[in-house]
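Internal tracking record. Fields below are filled automatically when a chain is submitted to the structure queue. Please do not edit lines marked as system-generated. If the sequence contains nonstandard residues, flag them in the REMARKS field before resubmitting.
Queue: standard
Priority: normal
Entity type: single polypeptide chain
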Amino acid sequence: MDFSKVNKKALSIDLVKFATYNLVAHILMNMRYEEPLFNEKFIYSLAFILAGLSVYHIFVAPRLEPTL
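SYSTEM-GENERATED OUTPUT FOLLOWS
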């Protein structure tokens, strides 16, 4: 795997963007429905979403961009 083809800036931006979105949504859901704040379900959900974004940027995007 050649990591020089990975757009690290786009990866970082997407990770911060999605983490912020999920944190804000989780806090607002906590305020509205009084769910536990930062419970285990949220932590796993956030980790899996960020892992999925990383997989996309590392494995899919470098192979997809030359074909577009």
